[in-house]
Amino acid sequence: MGRSNRILIVDDYAPFRHLVRSTLQRRPGLDVIGEASDGLGAVQKAQELQPDLILLDIELPALNGIEAARRIQKIAPGAKILFLSNNRSWNIAVETLRSGASGYVVKSDTAIELILAVDSVLQGKRFVSTSLSDHNLADTTGGHIGGHHEAGIYSDDRWLLEDATQFIGAALRAGNAVVVVATKPHRDILLPGLRAFGLDIGAVIEQGRYIALDAAETLSTFMVKGMPDPVRFMGAFGNLISRATEAAMGPHPRVGVFGECVDLLCTAGNVEAAIQIEKLGNHLVEEYQLDILCGYTVNQLQGVSDKHIYQRIRAEHSAVHFH
């Protein structure tokens, strides 16, 4: 009988570590040799144990999972890395794969996909949750990747800001640029969140890679009689995207856009204008190969009389996440 594959589990939530351990222990040939609850502990355990596979969360105390993965590759080069995360952001999945990981599993898919993902990664294959399978993963190593237009529908600001921080932080960490069109309270909270993500946000702003605008003021530049004017919209965002693209670094510069204009319109009951902006956003994605995340709040959508609003939002996006 061959040697068992030795696995290290890293997650700050003990019940989830226990669930993963129990699942793996039922499979012959898999041996859980250790656990860690933070990023620095993951690096220490990886160096000490030299596992074959590390199951790694992203949101970890002390050191985030992506940075931990980069360090682990230097001190445990034989260890494969499979991320298990609550985050459904395409940008985050791409960033983990570019950091050297072999797979990405959304935690809500763990019960169905964990063993399949572990087997695939140990066989030298790449695995990504089927909930992200509509995306093109042909080249996540630094080459061209088409644009994506996603929406997040959030039960409270905490989830919205967590997703926005991950989306923006992953883009900036990769050397790309972002355009943030948000309310002032959210813009104010995002900055310390991005610092906690490990970014020198002052340097990023100075480089021109972080452009932040007020959502209401931005709306006023292209709204005419309650509806977005396509020429004004494309002109305004085209100029912003061009500026951001020039500031982005690397051979394949990209721009991410996080926006709350549509949520403000839904708050005001102007759903038709929000849907038209989403359609125009799709034109931006096609023209500039952007990654867009639109933030909606559940409470505002619940006040909209059109009971099909969720389906209409879904129709204009490559993916919709509920939190």
Task: Describe the fold and architecture.
- This protein is 48% helix and 21% strand.
- The chain is α/β, with parallel strands linked by helices and 323 residues long.
- It folds into two domains: 5-132, Rossmann fold, CATH 3.40.50.2300; 148-322, Rossmann fold.
- It has a six-stranded parallel sheet, with helices on both faces. Strands 9-8-12-13-7-14 form a six-stranded parallel sheet, sandwiched between helices.
- The protein is elongated and about 70 Å long.
- The N and C termini lie far apart (45 Å).
- 42% of the residues are buried.
Largest sheet: 6 strands, parallel
Q: State the shape.
A: elongated
What would the average pLDDT be, to the nearest integer?
87
Strand order of the largest sheet: 2-1-3-4-5-6
Uncertain regions: pLDDT < 50 for 5+ in a row? Answer: 134-145
* CA-atom Rg in angstroms: 21 Å
> Total number of helical segments?
14
Cα-to-Cα separation, first versus last residue: 45 Å
Topology order in helix (H) and strand (E) letters = EHEHEHEHEHEEHEHHEHEEHEHHEHHE
- Under CATH, the topology of the largest domain is which? Rossmann fold
